[in-house]
Amino acid sequence: MNVPEEGRPDRDSGPEPADESVLHAARALVLADLQARGATAPETVSLLEEAVSSRRWWLEQWSDGAPYVPGLLAQDVQDALLETYGRWPLCPHCDDPHALAVEPELGPDPHWVCEAVGEAIAPVGSLGPGPAPDPAPEDS
User: What is the CA radius of gyration of the chain?
Assistant: First the structure.
């Protein structure tokens, strides 16, 4: 019989490790935001999957960081999309197109925030429809 370490699930007895459930929940939140803004092309979802894989190692190293994973994953995807897709998600309130930021940068309960006016727009995972993505600049 496997005896789990203190505070760690027995990986042979449960349906999935706690780290995986944290990652799956965070992935679902970011995917919901991508869907709300029409950014679920296969390439975009692949970027999300790559970000989840990167955060898996991070979470294994620091399990106390579990509450921070949704915000970090949202930032990872946002950074990856900037190079290939453009700024995402765009602020739905400002005339000058700019991307929303995730706040806190490292903390629980992350929100998409318009930094121009300092207003929280929505929790990560709860974005509503908004402006179309800002296309990435094309190479000359």
Answer: 17
